[in-house]
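pls design
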């Protein structure tokens, strides 16, 4: 059945017919008046129209002489034709989105007219078979990126593509096409160096593991395919170079890496660095615990999940995934990680003690249930020391006296200056602390540099580099020492 193009705002029942014409049922079809439909144009015609390079009479009327054989021939518009041909040959990145392209056209004309094209957007056109895509692609020897989204293509049942047709293709976009996973794998041998594959909104089910195909793929987008579940993700878990995985809006609620125990790393998704799981049904912290098992994970985006509605959700995610550097597109600064991990320790410290946790390493034996729920807690105790009883006391109602920190203030490069002692609110910003010290020490604010030391971390100095953050943000506590330099 030939694909046809209906008007953007069709009258009467044409809107309903448009949906029927795209039905992939083998006996599906519709009747429509010819004057209501656009049956499409070939690739080169659409390209010339899109970039205002149509063939036709020339308006400038310029003429020149040309010798043909022994006769002199007068030509009109020859210079303009040459200019148009030059413009076509110069094109490298083209978009024929919604241009009613239905075929390649006469064999060889694309290669002759525009051989330097590298990027092609053919989304939302009238292409109806993969064979027609091949006829276009085999004339574009430099093709690196191809978007075929929203074309309803029929794929051959056997190996469909001549060797070399897509030899330079690195990016392929096949969104909203109704393509199946079996069809993807059937075509994949002809994409030997493919790095990015977009399969959004295809109702795909991953039915088998890719074997000897897609081995160089770095990015895979499977978003908005609700048929995909946790078990299907295991089938793509051993793609060796997969760095970016986008699985938003698939209804995902759990994930599990059975080859790795508590505190261990999984062999699955060995190169995965960036994971996007937005708009899913993630509501259990066990999901985040599992992500800490990934060897290479550095960036996570998990917005609009039930879990994210919980109090301090982002801080807990940071504390639970030790190697994470970016969360929801925001960089995790070292100070932010430290604060999140210390708060996590305090929040679950009493639970840790009830489960058998103890500051004495010889007596520290939290039960399996606690370790399963908080697999990084023991590591944090080694990193920062076990939480003290004073830290784990229930927080008192807000009163200014309860929020004051008793701090020593030491001018580290002015040895004659006495050590000062001050009580400062933990909500006080670094900028205001500098203002106070500027008045006390008679030094301009712009020249002051602040850091602090904690008895809990001897030998380590933490810079207070952001003037707009509070002392609480940097986890400054009672008994700490502010270091001032200028």
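designed seq:
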């Amino acid at each position: 059945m030939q694909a046809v193009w209906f008007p953007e705002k069709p009258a009467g029942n044409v809107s309903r017919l448009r949906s029927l014409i795209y039905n992939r049922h083998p006996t599906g079809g519709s009747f429509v008046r010819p004057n209501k439909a656009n049956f499409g144009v070939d690739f080169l015609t659409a390209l010339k129209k899109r970039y205002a390079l149509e063939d036709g009479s020339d308006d400038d009327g310029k003429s020149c002489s040309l010798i043909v054989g022994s006769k002199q021939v007068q030509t009109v518009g020859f210079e303009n034709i040459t200019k148009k041909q030059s413009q076509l040959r110069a094109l490298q990145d083209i978009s024929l989105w919604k241009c009613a392209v239905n075929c390649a056209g006469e064999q060889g004309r694309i290669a002759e007219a525009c051989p330097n094209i590298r990027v092609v957007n053919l989304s939302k056109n009238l292409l109806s078979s993969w064979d027609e895509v091949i006829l276009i692609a085999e004339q574009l020897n430099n093709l690196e990126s191809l978007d075929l989204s929203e074309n309803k293509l029929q794929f051959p049942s056997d190996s469909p593509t001549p060797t070399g047709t897509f030899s330079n293709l690195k990016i392929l976009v096949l969104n909203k096409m109704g393509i199946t996973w079996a069809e993807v794998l059937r075509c994949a041998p002809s994409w030997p160096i493919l790095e990015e594959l977009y399969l959004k909104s295809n109702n795909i089910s991953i039915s088998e593991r890719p074997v000897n195909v897609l081995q160089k793929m770095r990015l895979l987008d499977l978003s908005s395919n609700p048929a995909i579940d946790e078990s299907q993700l295991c089938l793509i878990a051993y793609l060796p170079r997969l760095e970016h995985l986008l699985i938003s809006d698939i209804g995902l609620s759990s994930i599990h890496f059975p080859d790795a125990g508590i505190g261990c790393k999984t062999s699955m998704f060995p190169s995965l660095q960036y994971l996007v799981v937005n708009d899913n049904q993630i509501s259990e912290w066990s999901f985040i615990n599992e992500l800490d098992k990934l060897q290479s994970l550095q960036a996570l985006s998990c917005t609009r999940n039930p879990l994210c509605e919980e109090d301090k959700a982002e801080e807990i995610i940071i504390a639970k995934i030790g190697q994470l550097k970016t969360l929801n597109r925001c960089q995790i600064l070292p100070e932010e990680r430290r604060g999140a991990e210390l708060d996590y320790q305090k929040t679950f410290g009493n639970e840790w003690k009830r489960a058998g946790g103890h500051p004495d390493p010889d007596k520290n034996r939290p039960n399996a249930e606690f370790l399963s729920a908080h697999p990084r807690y023991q590591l944090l105790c080694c990193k920062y020391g076990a939480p003290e009883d004073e830290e784990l006391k229930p927080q008192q109602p807000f009163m200014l006296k309860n929020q004051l920190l008793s701090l020593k203030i030491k001018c580290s490069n002015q040895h004659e200056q006495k050590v000062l002692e001050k009580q400062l609110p933990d909500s006080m910003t670094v900028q205001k602390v500098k203002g106070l010290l500027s008045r006390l020490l008679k030094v301009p604010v712009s020249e002051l540099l602040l850091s602090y030391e904690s008895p809990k971390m001897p030998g380590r100095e933490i810079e207070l580099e952001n003037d707009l953050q509070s002392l609480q943000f940097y986890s400054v506590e009672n008994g700490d020492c502010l270091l001032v330099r200028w």
